[in-house]
Amino acid sequence: MKLPIFIADAFATKAFCGNPAAVCLLENKLDEDLHQKIAKEMNLSETAFIRKLHPNDNFTQSSCFGLRWFTPQNEVPLCGHATLASAAVLFHKIKNVNSTLTFVTMSGELKARKEEDGIVLDLPLYPAHPQKLHEVKDLIKTAIGDTLVQDVRYSPDTKKLLVRLSDTYNRSFLESLTVNTENLLQVETTGKVKGLILTLKGEPGGQTQAFDFYSRYFAPWYGVAEDPVTGSAHTVLSSYWSEQLGKKDLHAFQCSSRGGELIISLRSDGRVDIKGGAALVLEGTLMA
User: Fold this and answer.
1) Of the candidates 235, 237, 170, 175, the residue with the CA atom closest to the CA atom of residue 204
2) What is the architecture, at CATH level 2, of domain 129-269?
3) What is the pLDDT along the chain (288 residues), one digit of tens a residue?
4) Which InterPro entries would you find in this protein's record (predicted)?
């Protein structure tokens, strides 16, 4: 079987930045076990599979598709950057004629809207509730040692733990922080936490660009030690920082070694628009 496959760097304006995702276009139904095998072979944080919903659909004219996401280890219920990469492939490579695409996913219908300066994702917004520190102190201590923590929240919808570092730290501290992900699987075995978000309040603009907040994201429970730029984490971060800062429009930066910018707008319908760019870096045929 031959499958068209692409790699696009999401939340990036040029190649080799942001977060790479593989995107497979499925003309026909794929054997269930092949999804995971292909994702493991690609060995990126996510591989996306776009499928037609009806026999007469085609990737150029149709506006609604099925979408699934796999890490090298698991299928996941939501992935923002691989959705952005999927939309970029359809818009920019396949030349889909529609300005808005709808993806039917495990997290409901997600929309991607083409704009001149990027692609806007319409994603769920997930609240993060106060979390008792004593219940997760071993996890936090294992991950970041004696780093000062200002707030801890938990998102039951996404199973993500949000840890806000002290406002006394700056962006360069977060970027250089060594996070121990290897031992987290031994410390957190309950299944309650599937992702760890570290976040920090932004700084006013000066010599560098102003951002409302910074973050890094770790998901060893899904086989991803650190994810470079994470749309799904920002469905939680957007809710938290909007509340903290009293703002609906936010500018975020994820401080991985590759880095990525996200433009965020909380909507009146309880969802969030997250905009980013994408750069196509590879096109080929998978021999499955």
Assistant:
1) 170
2) Roll (3.10)
3) 899 999 999 999 899 999 999 999 999 999 999 999 999 999 999 999 999 999 999 999 999 999 999 999 999 999 999 999 999 999 999 999 999 999 999 999 999 999 999 999 999 999 999 999 899 999 999 999 999 999 999 999 999 999 999 999 999 999 999 999 999 999 999 999 999 999 999 987 655 678 999 999 999 999 999 999 999 999 999 999 999 999 999 999 999 999 999 999 999 999 999 999 999 999 999 997
4) Phenazine_PhzF-like
Residue type, 36: Q
Which residue in the block uniquely carries the two structure tokens 């730290």? 169
Residues of the chain with CATH 3.10.310.10: 2-124+276-287, 129-269
* Fold annotation for 2-124+276-287: Diaminopimelate Epimerase; Chain A, domain 1 (3.10.310)
46 is catalytic: yes
